[in-house]
Design goal:
By secondary structure, the chain is α/β, with parallel strands linked by helices. It binds adenosine-5'-triphosphate (ATP) and magnesium ion.
Length: about 350
């Protein structure tokens, strides 16, 4: 996928920081779906969300999109409250859902054309519209296929990877600053998955914030992400941080584990390791580490991080680490001092 024409695509909006603090949610019927999720991402960052089925990944995406109103949440874009300014911020955020949203009886070009007409009705100049769509087609590597009828599952014209790239292109039409995707690589071959993630990396390099749930990434895909958010059943935050530091985070459990396979995977920095470890079971199929275990481990970890931050930033003898200061730092990680 060479010969990209990114420089021609306008980026009208940029966000310098997305800060998510302490998101709690539970559905009426049930148990907690999100249990104090916190992370913060600077511009030009790509985050993977990973965790077992039902751990709340899609729910978290929907909260970020304002589709679900969380019981408790503090989500800030450049210091401004997302919920209170949703009308304004909606145009900054685009969502590529897991399901295909393409019109089977329209060509690749026409799918983009009607989406543009719908989203940007003020854009009237025919040559400007054509130019924008052509640029977009080149950037997602679908220029050659622009006249192909999209077709449907029964009558396949575009490959799975091409369909996924067209779905992404549809959401890029408005030039969003934050792109949120739910399992963009599921069902695709390794090669197609890698090309999707490469595309996401290019969008990140333009300054966008990319947030994507991802299923069983191989090492190359996992390493393309700058940050990772690991979740467990009940919407527990197992880990948030640099993706390369994630393996080290579990060294203690790894020492306890007798699972040869998990150790080999950790050594190979294989992302499947996280799933093996988070949900690892003993001979009677009992989980070795339940969600509360991970919740507590992460709480201790972010507590230590906050104190370390405090001591590196306050080296003067006269500046005491007051509980108030630590509390302020902890709140940045979405935590508070234990009562
Ligand atoms: N609208 C809803 N009403 C009630 N419960 C829901 C609703 N949506 C999700 N849940 C529950 O919340 C939990 C988290 O669901 P969610 O879809 O976010 O999981 P997920 O991590 O995306 O899973 P998967 O990997 O299977 O996509 C699950 O237990 C699910 O049953
Ligand atoms: Mg999901």
């Amino acid at each position: 996928m060479s010969n990209r024409h990114w420089e021609l695509i306008e980026i009208p909006l940029l966000v310098n920081e997305l800060r998510v603090q302490d998101v709690w949610h539970s559905f009426k019927e049930g148990n907690p779906a999100l249990k104090g999720i916190s992370f913060s991402l600077p511009r030009a960052t790509m985050m993977a969300i990973m965790g077992p089925s039902g751990s709340g990944k899609t729910t978290l995406l929907q909260v970020l999109l304002g589709e679900i109103k969380a019981r408790k949440a503090r989500i800030m874009l450049d210091g401004k409250d997302l919920g209170a300014n949703m009308q304004v911020f909606q145009q900054y955020i685009a969502y590529v859902p897991q399901d295909d949203l393409l019109f089977a009886n329209l060509s690749v070009y026409e799918n983009l054309y009607y989406k543009l007409k719908l989203c940007l009705p003020e854009m009237k100049d025919a040559s400007e519209i054509r130019k924008r769509i052509h640029n977009l087609l080149r950037s997602v590597d679908l220029y050659e296929q622009r006249h192909l009828m999209v077709g449907d599952v029964m009558n396949k014209k575009l490959s799975g990877g091409q369909r996924r790239r067209l779905n992404i292109a549809l959401e890029l039409i408005t030039g969003p600053a934050i792109l949120i995707l739910d399992e963009p690589t599921s069902g695709l071959s390794t090669k197609d998955s890698e090309s999707i993630v490469q595309l996401l990396g290019e969008l990140r390099d333009q300054g966008k914030i990319i947030i994507s749930t991802i299923h069983q990434p191989n090492a190359s895909i996992f390493n393309s992400f700058d940050r990772v958010l690991l979740m467990d059943k009940g919407g527990v935050q197992v880990y948030f941080g640099n993706s390369e530091a994630a393996f080290g985070y579990f060294s203690e459990e790894l020492k306890e584990l007798e699972d040869f396979l998990a150790k080999a995977k950790a050594e190979a920095e294989n992302a499947e390791f996280f799933f093996d470890l988070i949900e690892s079971r003993d001979a009677s199929l009992q989980r070795l580490y339940d969600p509360e275990y991970w919740e507590n481990k992460y709480r201790d970890f972010s507590f230590l991080q906050a104190i370390q931050y405090d001591s590196t930033n306050n080296n003067h003898e006269d500046e005491q680490k007051t509980p108030e200061k630590i509390q302020t730092e902890l709140q940045k990680y979405g935590h508070s001092l234990p009562a």
